[in-house]
Amino acid sequence: MPAIPLPQPWSQSRVCVVVPTYNEASNLGELIHRVLELPLPNLRVLVVDDASPDGTGEIADALATDHPDRVSVLHRAGKEGLGRAYVAGMRRALADGADYVAQMDADLSHPPSYLPQLLGTLLATGAGVVIGSRYVPGGSLAQDWGAHRRLLSGWANTYLKTVLDLPIRDVTAGFKLWSEEALTAIDLDAVTSTGYSFQVEMHYRAYTRGQKIVEIPIHFSQRQTGASKMDLGVQVESALQPFRLRRRARPR
Ligand SMILES: Nc1nc2c(ncn2[C@@H]2O[C@H](COP(=O)(O)OP(=O)(O)OP(=O)(O)O)[C@@H](O)[C@H]2O)c(=O)[nH]1
Ligand SMILES: [Mg+2]
């Protein structure tokens, strides 16, 4: 069934979807296909690849050749972490003229069909960021997430919210849409996280700079192919980062 065209404010919005990749060869083609078929003709994708050994960067280049007006690739020299990839990608998206910058994983955990809802909500509320949230009413987690993974995610959320006193239900969420103004206020150059704690640092910086934060429910799917990049270093940084953020924010 052809997609119903969306009204002009949606279709005219210059949205750049930043997708960090490390060894996502089995997922990237499907993801880009699903993003490009959305009824958002001004939406572009920027893949930020950290020299994946499985050839993800070459797949991204081929997609950019097939869709020169809609897909581009930022190649980085090596694996430096999710946070570094996002900072570089978001800066490039803003430099290329995006009014809105989305962020999402490459492994199809974040269903692309929510992108128009993220944009519509941002347009309607004037928020600095709209979060695709697993933990607001109506949101849900992958059915195939075991009890251990659910407990870990729920515990991490409670821990981070408590330490940072953040009024956000899904504080580790990685699927969201930012306005250009919010990213400028956040000051991407000052973001220090290398790994997944980037998500929390961005929420904290948005909140402490007075940005309006809105959450809409999403269903989060389990990755079907490829391997997770979550390792011990990423987890240790995530556990320590809230204390660093609090210390830095404290008046001297
Ligand atoms: N460029 C870049 N991308 C990364 C890096 N680490 C992770 N990613 C990407 O960041 C996204 C999230 O990583 P995942 O491995 O899916 O993390 P996760 O969702 O916590 O783990 P799973 O539930 O097992 O999928 C994916 O698109 C990864 O390819 C990195 O060092 N550099
Ligand atoms: Mg994942």
> Nearest-angstrom radius of gyration?
17 Å
**Distance between the first and last residues' Cα:** 59 Å
Overall shape: globular
User: Which small-molecule species are bound to the chains here?
Assistant: guanosine-5'-triphosphate, magnesium ion
Spatial strand arrangement across the major sheet: 3-2-1-4-6-5-7
Structural class: alpha/beta
Instruction: Average the pLDDT over all residues and give the rounded result.
Output: 92
Instruction: Report the total helices.
Output: 9
User: What count of structural domains?
Assistant: 1
Portion of residues within helices: 40-55%
CATH-level-2 architecture: Alpha-Beta Complex
Outline the biggest β-sheet.
7 strands, mixed
- CATH class category name: Alpha Beta
Number of E-type strands: 7
Give the name of the CATH superfamily.
Answer: Spore Coat Polysaccharide Biosynthesis Protein SpsA, Chain A
Compressed to H and E, one letter per element, the order equals: HEHEHEHEHEHEHHEH
Contiguous runs where pLDDT drops below 50 for at least 5 residues: none
Q: Would you tell me which CATH topology applies?
A: Spore Coat Polysaccharide Biosynthesis Protein SpsA, Chain A
Q: How much β-strand is present in the residues?
A: 5-15%
